[in-house]
Amino acid sequence: MGFWNKISKAIDSINQLLGGAASIMILLSCIVSAANALLRYGLDISNNWPLELQWYLFSAAVMLGASYTLKRNEHVRVDLIYSHLSDRGRIWVDLFGLTCFLMPACLLFTWLSWTSLFYPSWLISEGSLNSGGLARYPIKFIVPFGFFMLSLQGLSEIIKRVGALKGKYVLSAEDLHYEKPMQ
Length: 183
Fold this sequence. Notes:
It is a single chain. The chain has helices spanning 2-42, 49-71, 87-123, 137-166, 173-176. By secondary structure, it is mostly helical. α1 runs antiparallel to α2, α1 (2-42) runs antiparallel to α4 (137-166) and α3 packs antiparallel against α4. The longest helix has 41 residues, at 2-42. It is elongated.
């Protein structure tokens, strides 16, 4: 598991950085929104690029934050039996969900968003139809990239859980943390 642990740690490190970037993008989105309001209503200067930049920052934060959220084990679960299982049982449920649901969906969405969303937009250097708007293809790249990073984080989680089942990896408290829903 030495090689696979290194791969998992590298993926986790990258997604840790992307999570930090997503946090900064949320802050920047708020700053751009406030600046846009000041320009529009305070100085009577209207332009579309600040509004589009705000949307782009928020969209990028969501797409890049998804893999970080998975790394932190904070995605929402539908809890029917999960809370009643032992840690080993939860690892098996996680492994099943990661391999049967997350990975196929993320790989499919990566491919579909690359071929039908980003690539055609990049070929024509698509820009906003709004006056003063931004180029569209850079933000469209974030969609397949976000799904790709989510699938890589899924691979990291699979590696960690297989290692834990074999007794060659100890899952952190963060990986085993489960917050029961409010009743």
